[in-house]
Amino acid sequence: MVLFRNAVHALVITAAFYAGSFFIEGVGIDFLKDAIVSPIGMVVAFLLAFMETTYNRF
Hints:
Blueprint: H1 2-27, H2 30-37, H3 39-55
Helix pairs in contact: 1-2, 1-3
């Protein structure tokens, strides 16, 4: 159950990265959007977010 919750949190964080990439494009910085929205960029963002939600200890 904990891994499912962490996966959902990671998906929310990845969706925020995706939404933020459109803001970045609107400002005029195109090269960052290409790195974030590419398929490998989305996988890396999800993996980093999953590791952050799973292994972050306060």
